[in-house]
UniProtKB/TrEMBL annotation:
<dbReference type="InterPro" id="IPR036086">
    <property type="entry name" value="ParB/Sulfiredoxin_sf"/>
</dbReference>
<protein>
    <submittedName>
        <fullName>Transcriptional regulator</fullName>
    </submittedName>
</protein>
């Protein structure tokens, strides 16, 4: 870390210049590494809420929160990068004025944030957060409002992760599983959530025709998991098929191939054996 001069205004100016340089260097390194464009982008609050679904909110009052948990913004996503380094000189004047005031020991009011899971999104106090990052503070005072969500926000690290979360939220709206059943159906390709949803709805339609009565989405989801999904997954595990895929991905693959080969919605050991030699192999990270 650069040595301070002892003059608050000069040190604040140096801090800003250093943070701007770091922001540009980080952007260049990401480009050279051919990383996704959103690696250095600050997370937008509205898009995160839309992806995970908003149920409600509650005020938690004044708290001390980790600075590195502040990863997003309500409305200033263009002015700062993921680590709240300034992305242009547009915020220089206010940034340096506040930084100099803090170096002189003047009091700083708490920031205001929304909490989603373990992440915090700034609604007021962006410059103060940026200065806190620059000064390597570990914590900061904040008035916190917690957002309750339909699905877990765990696993969101960058903007691209919102796609899988959005598709999973829609899937759980169409197929309202609960508890361990909800956690058991996971895919890595977001579009496969839509395909599973259609498969479950088609299965539920055939079930309602069979029993001669209307069944709620919750009932269809529960019965599909117990009567269709779980038995197939157990057969796949016993046959050691598709070990590099999630259970849901393996189920979806054999469901496609089963109907293509036998044109019937039935499962048995013979069908699994017939499909086993066609099973693809791949290594792919899993995201919930």
């Amino acid at each position: 870390m650069a040595r301070d001069t002892g003059f608050p205004a000069a040190d604040a100016e140096n801090d800003f210049t250093r943070q701007r340089r770091r922001a540009e260097l980080s952007r260049l390194v990401s480009w050279l590494r051919r990383e996704p464009d959103d690696v250095n982008e600050i997370l937008p609050f509205d898009e995160v809420v839309a992806a995970v679904g908003r149920v409600g909110e509650r005020s938690l009052g004044l708290q001390v929160i980790p600075v590195n948990s502040i990863v997003g913004s309500v409305d200033r996503t263009r002015d700062f990068d993921r680590f709240f380094r300034p992305t242009s000189t547009r915020v220089r004047e206010r940034w340096q004025r506040l930084a100099a005031a803090q170096r002189r020991g003047e009091s700083v009011p708490p920031i205001q944030v929304y909490r989603i899971g373990s992440m915090h999104f700034v609604s007021d106090g962006h410059h103060r957060v940026s200065i806190a990052y620059a000064m390597h503070w570990s914590t900061i005072d904040a008035y916190v409002t917690e957002i309750q969500t339909k699905i877990s926000p765990d696993g969101i690290a960058q903007r691209g992760d919102l796609v899988i979360k959005d598709h999973r939220r829609l899937f759980l709206t169409r197929v309202p599983l609960s508890g361990p059943q909800r956690a058991a159906v996971v895919v890595t390709d977001p579009w496969e959530y839509a395909e599973i949803s259609q498969s479950v709805e088609a299965w539920g339609f055939r079930l309602m025709q069979e029993v001669g009565e209307f069944l709620s989405r919750e009932t269809v989801a529960r019965r599909w998991f117990g009567e269709e999904y779980l038995p197939v997954v157990r057969m796949l595990r016993a046959a050691e098929m598709l070990p590099d895929h999630t259970d849901a991905e393996a189920y979806l693959w054999v469901a496609r191939e089963r109907y293509r080969l036998v044109r019937r919605h039935v499962w048995n050991d013979e069908i699994i054996a017939e499909l086993s030699h066609l099973a693809p192999r791949r290594h792919k990270p899993v995201s919930s």
